[in-house]
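Ligand: copper (II) ion. Inputs:
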Amino acid sequence: MRTQLLCAAAAAPFALQGAYADQISSALDHAPIGVMGDHLHDKGEWMLSYRAMHMQMEENRIGETRVRPDEIAGSIPNVNAPPPTLRVVPTEMSMTMHMVGAMYAPTDRVTLMVMGNYITKEMDHLTFQGMMGTTELGGFTTEVSGVGDTSLTALIGLYEKEHLSVHAGVGLSLPTGSITKTDNVLTPMNTRPELRLPYPMQLGSGTYDFLPSLTLTNKTQDARFGGGVQYSGTIRMGENDEDYTLGNRHQITAWGAYSPDPRVSFSLRGTAWTQDEIDGVDPLIAAPVQTANPDFQGGEVMELGFGINGLATEGPLKGHRLALEYVVPVARDLNGPQLETDWTVTVGWQKAF
Ligand SMILES: [Cu+2]
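Predicted complex:
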């Protein structure tokens, strides 16, 4: 009796590994939906995905400090002077992005990935009257929509042992997004010309960007706990047709997830990223507004994400994944004045074939 119990106990982990962890896929096998390129596929497998992301920004910061619109208009020098100080201040911005992706694995070690997107941006502004002072003239909104940049990435498996997996990503972003969008603005002289929109309202980088990444994922034998860590970068190559280069971006993100059942997992994710200022100037982006200053872009941000992943393990929807992630900032140091992000939510669907 005693021997049987010992045998059963010793065999249990292997039985679990065979019957549960390896054969049944789990909601835990994919990272939170805000993470890209987190997994490889088996040879011959396809995956299609759709994500919708919405980001909401309100109020401005210089470094870590909040600043009011009248403080910006009254004191921040205008690089495109005259007027001597900024006259137009963004107060709110929203961005919605629809992302469509496909993955295909020609071998067990290599998964290819293509991702395209459609973006809508809206920015509300306050215009201050005349060449100086803090008298408000009125508000206006600019809006833009269209396709963004398209990425092609190869994910390459480097190491795999039991449930631990390490892979690298080598990607290229193609400049399919416009950088010459225009809209009507309210000037401090109370006119409404159509101008080229400032840098944050454009849809693409205008450059070919190198997208390196390195991802490590792991999970427990019983697939109840899992997690990962990923570095991802955006390295701009050269200068775009309008004579500037967006700042390079580096990001580290790490997540942990708990799966009470293979059909669902809950995740907590921490992210830190840094993005440089813009190098160069588009001569047609010259309004007295902070977003037209190449130095008032980028910064350092830490965020926290709360996610849920779902996977249908049987029935007509078997294999379909649905996921949601809500991300809030916890610390910000912005090259400002610059609008700050309040929250980002991403929902997504994925299905492998
Ligand atoms: Cu996939």
